[in-house]
Specification:
Strand content: 5-15%
Number of domains: 4
Oligomer: single chain
CATH architecture of the largest domain: Orthogonal Bundle
Number of helices: 32
Number of strands: 25
Strand order of the largest sheet: 3-2-1-4-5-6-7-8
Helix content: 40-55%
Radius of gyration: 28 Å
CATH topology of the largest domain: N-(1-d-carboxylethyl)-l-norvaline Dehydrogenase, domain 2
Length: about 775
């Protein structure tokens, strides 16, 4: 089979439905089917024999975070049932089994599929616990050749890890087809696992969770204390240990534990450290399965108009208000690092050492049993469990020799691989500009290069930037392309970023071909540095603020009209000034998980670095809007006024933040290479764009928008100050008081209006209150 063009997912549970949605995100038509509900008879009448799959589709359309990148993708999912429509799997190139984790149920389904599937179609299981050899026992050779395990992690749209397990008879073409599709079109990083229970991520993850639950109970930590220590020691973002259990579901934890306990060898360390979990079992029986249930170790309780976050007391099982952890070991970690934390004698330090030493030792013992190299394990835990560092990277941070010595001091023999690292110094090293990892024989080998992947993190090992300041750097990424990397906090835009953009324009014009705006942080840019703006406003440095706005307008225009192509390559947040930066690029190559929007009204101002005029220019040319100036102005007013943020790159196209011709990359690791290729495409015969002109409705349009604003305010949909900000925005978009719909305006004239509206609003105490609240809480203030 040359290409996977159609798919079928059998099993419309949480994972099956979400996998089907993600295939649809990639543009692949998919049939989602499940069993016929019990008690349903016959194929006719009013009975809905597809009710289970239909119900699953209805749930995921309402789910948060959203499994679909765009509601348009839902049209690619066909609903069916296995009793009446199993033959529809016959046209699928890839059939994904995601039914209950029961061997006989799966085998019975495979036998039925063998009667309908076409030659060469691929069959995979999404099992997380059952070995491939067990699944295929007694099944036909034809199936064995086309079968593999492709284990997605929940939620499939967002979790990048895919564990692949092949059997001795699996055709190489099957593995190649799945790797190609999941890499380029589903955005996954495939880890090759051996056919062992739990594979890699869940085996280590379940061990880690068991260690943490036991140690927290033994040492008397609160839920909040255990989560805070876990976040510090492992860099698990946001959730910590108990928050993660709530996220993935406590019922899943019990299922994984049960499977591993049954299938692992009696001498496996997991069998030694695990313990029964009566508290979790009771919580699951009561429906307290975590976020998908009525709560878990944390819950939100309504108290009047407010929602109070509560945490469970592990001793009593009762809920109480969340408290802030106060442990000396947490404070010490900030000063002395990870080793300082695990050496601290308080319960936080002892908890960190207990969990880390056990988990890291276990991870080191799984090479080569679970997979062939340490880097695969590190990637699995980073991508599957959101660890900031993998187990072997954590061991390097602690020091392999230090870890081995402490294990020996407590009477525990270090694993052979840890002893080798203790002797050589580290699991990873950099040699000749390449990152290398420790192999089983004690030698080092280069991390394998992946075709089509270009990462700044790799380039940084081999050389120095062309230029650098505290907020941004310039990198030569080859073939005449320069990359501008912003690396301030949250990649916000400040004066140093402006300086580096100027440097970038001069540098590229002096001998390079194109510029790419890209970084490998969590976010492309969270916009302007609000702290700088608030400081200037609090000391009434109005000329400084106005100059900051003017500089932004001038610099973004300079990007737009540079004598070479400029391509933006966002991932994560690209809001406010970060969005405006993209709006001035010749093209954008966006990662699917790009959340783009102009959010300035949320902090009480209007976009003033060209965001208003660029959105007017784009939507003014839209073929999807009626002719005349008012429809485009109304659409931009709605988008900016409600601070809409696209929840994917596809939604960004629908909102106008991206153009139809802008590219979308599914695999985050391919983003820079794709953006660079796009920039090079644009170099042939490149000419800067022609400056736009605007036909705006003037006072009549502003009056019409004022009626909309008043209706929203009087109905309580917006606040009184929302109305003030919206009125100022309407003035900009309608062209000011002197605009005439028979006379065109230049972009510089619109920029003057943006700047004036911004300065008017920034001097208002209500705007300053919004900015201060956002800085303190990360949330908008509705005043």
């Amino acid at each position: 089979m040359d290409e996977i063009k159609r798919a079928a997912v059998i099993g419309a549970g949480v994972m099956g439905a979400a996998i089907a949605a993600h295939l649809a995100n990639a543009g692949i038509p998919v049939v989602l089917m499940d069993v016929v509900p019990q008690g349903t008879t016959g194929a006719g009448g009013n009975q809905n024999r597809n009710a289970i799959a239909e119900g699953a589709m209805q749930r995921i359309l309402k789910s948060e975070p959203a499994p679909f990148m765009s509601k348009k993708a839902a049209s690619l999912v066909e609903i069916a049932n296995v009793e009446d429509h199993l033959d529809r799997a016959g046209s699928a190139d890839w059939i994904i089994e995601a039914v209950v984790e029961d061997v006989e149920t799966k085998r019975a389904l495979y036998r039925r599929l063998e009667q309908v599937r076409k030659d060469g179609s691929i069959v995979s299981s999404n099992t997380s616990t059952i070995p491939l050899a067990t699944l295929l026992q007694g099944l036909p050779e034809r199936l064995c050749r086309d079968f593999l395990i492709a284990h997605f992690f929940n939620p499939p749209r967002y979790m990048r890890l895919l564990e692949l397990v092949v059997g001795p008879r699996t055709r190489s073409e099957v593995l190649a087809a799945i790797e190609e599709l999941t890499d380029r079109r589903l955005g996954k990083v495939a880890i090759h696992c051996h056919d062992r229970p739990g594979f890699v991520a869940n085996r280590i993850g379940a061990f880690w969770l068991q260690c943490a639950l036991g140690a927290a109970a033994d040492l008397g930590l609160t839920v909040e204390e255990a989560d805070a220590v876990t976040r510090r020691s492992l860099g698990v973002p946001g959730t910590g240990i108990f928050g993660l259990l709530d996220l993935v579901g406590l019922d899943l934890m019990l299922k994984i534990d049960s499977s591993l306990t049954r299938s692992l060898d009696p001498g496996d360390a997991y069998r030694r450290i695990r313990r029964d979990l009566p508290l979790i079992a009771r919580m699951v029986s009561e429906g307290r399965t975590g976020r998908k249930g009525t709560g878990g170790f944390y819950r939100l309780r309504d108290e009047g108009k407010d929602r109070v976050r509560e945490a469970m007391d592990l001793a009593t099982g009762q809920y109480r208000p969340v408290t802030r952890p106060l442990l000396e070991s947490l404070v010490l970690e900030q000063k002395a690092g990870l080793r300082g934390m695990v050496e601290h004698p308080d319960k936080g330090g002892r908890f960190a050492w207990s969990v880390l030493s056990e988990t890291l030792t276990y991870a080191a013992s799984l090479v080569p049993e679970a997979t062939d190299d340490i880097h695969a394990i590190d990637l699995a835990m980073q991508l599957g469990y959101q660890w900031q560092l993998g187990p072997f990277e954590l061991m390097d941070r602690l020091g392999p020799a230090y870890l081995a010595k402490r294990l020996q001091e407590q009477g525990q023999a270090p694993p052979a691989l840890l002893q080798k690292a203790a002797a050589t110094g580290a699991f990873y090293r950099v040699e000749g500009g390449r990152r290398q990892f420790l192999d089983l024989d004690g030698s080092y080998g280069n991390l394998p290069a992946r075709k089509g992947i270009c990462l700044l993190s790799d380039l940084k090992l081999a050389g120095n930037p062309l230029a650098r300041n505290s907020s941004a750097s310039l990198w030569d990424v080859g073939d005449g392309v320069v990359c501008l990397e912003v690396h301030s906090k949250m990649n916000t835009v400040d004066l140093d970023v402006f300086a580096m953009i100027r440097n970038a324009i001069d540098t590229v014009a002096g001998g390079y071909k194109a510029l790419v705006l890209y970084n490998e942080g969590e976010h492309f840019s969270a916009g302007v540095n609000l702290g700088l703006a608030l400081f200037a406003a609090n000391v009434a440095a109005w000329p400084l603020l106005e100059d900051l706005v003017r500089q932004g307008q001038e610099i973004y225009k300079a990007l737009k009209y540079a004598p070479f192509p400029v391509v933006g390559a966002p991932s994560g947040l690209a809001i406010g000034g970060g969005c405006e930066m993209l709006l001035h690029c010749d093209a954008v190559q966006a990662h699917t998980e790009s959340y783009i929007g102009l959010v300035e009204t949320g902090v009480g101002v209007v976009p003033a670095w060209g965001g208003c005029k660029e959105m007017l220019a784009r939507l003014g040319k839209s073929r999807h809007l009626p002719a005349g100036p008012v429809p485009a102005v109304a659409r931009v007013f709605e988008t900016i006024g409600f601070a809409k943020v696209a929840r994917s790159a596809f939604e960004a196209k629908e909102l106008g933040f991206l153009r139809a011709r802008d590219g979308i990359t599914f695999n985050r690791d391919r983003l820079l290479a794709d953006a660079k290729a796009r920039a090079l495409e644009l170099t042939a015969g490149y000419r800067p764009p022609e400056p736009p002109t605007f036909i705006l409705p003037g006072p009549s349009g502003r009056a019409a928008l004022a009626l909309v604003v008043e209706t929203l305010r009087s109905s309580g949909q917006i606040t009184a100050y929302d109305a003030v900000v919206a009125t100022a925005l309407a003035g900009v978009l309608c062209g000011g008081e002197t605009a005439d719909p028979t006379v065109s305006m230049s972009e510089d004239e619109v920029l003057v209006l943006e700047r004036a509206a911004f300065m008017l609003l920034i001097k208002n105490e209500a705007t300053l209150a919004r900015i201060e609240h956002t800085l303190e809480t990360g949330k908008p203030l509705r005043n």
